[in-house]
UniProtKB/TrEMBL annotation:
Keywords: Hydrolase. The keyword DNA repair does not apply. The keyword Hydrolase applies. This is LPXTG-site transpeptidase (Sortase) family protein. It comes from Candidatus Daviesbacteria bacterium GW2011_GWA2_40_9. GO terms for molecular function: hydrolase activity.
């Protein structure tokens, strides 16, 4: 009886461990280059970055200066900063998401930008809004301090800015990826 109970506990522990770390693992597993069908059906605004296997819904109009507000939004996807544009408006779109989080707070979308630092000049980023595809190409990357918020506050013209924390697992600095529409 004890032997069977021990085996059962080991199996349950491994299943829990696999479930907990699946969001990280799926980012490195082979995938198709098209966005997940479930995102297309359940959300009218989402992001797809094929190179890093990032696919997540985009939560609109999130206050980037209120931790209570943006933390809740980031559990469900990538946040669009309040006051920034939407695709097709000809202004700066500012999206931000976690690169990591503690295991007990991870969700399927909470680590959408885990591999954002791997993007290189020329890589593609796709936004989908109400069935329309918007394609962007990476043109620059920068690391800035958390108090350098001018990129968030000032419209930089027709571009996409993605932000996450860096180095991975810390909130020391911010990684900004700049992309232009193609």
């Amino acid at each position: 009886m004890r032997k069977n109970l021990g085996n059962l506990l080991i199996i349950l522990s491994l299943l829990l461990l696999g479930f907990t770390y699946y969001p990280f693992l799926r980012l490195y597993l082979p995938h198709s280059s098209s966005p997940a069908v479930s995102l297309a059906v359940s959300n009218s605004f989402y992001i797809n970055i094929p190179k890093i296997n990032a696919q997540a819904p985009i939560i609109l109009d999130v206050d980037p200066f209120s931790q209570a507000v943006y933390r809740k939004a980031l559990e469900q996807g990538v946040a669009q900063a309040r006051g920034s544009a939407l695709p097709g408006e000809g202004r700066t779109i500012f999206l931000f998401a976690h690169s990591s989080d503690v295991p007990w707070r991870m969700t399927r979308y909470n680590t959408a930008f885990l591999r954002l630092g791997e993007l290189q000049l020329g890589d593609n980023i796709f936004l989908y809004k109400e069935g329309r595809e918007y394609k962007y190409q990476v043109v620059d990357k920068k690391e800035v301090w958390p108090d350098e918020v001018q990129y968030l506050k000032e419209d930089q013209g027709d571009q996409l800015i993605l932000q996450t924390c860096t180095p991975l697992g810390t909130a020391l600095k911010r990684l900004l990826v700049f992309a232009q529409p193609t």
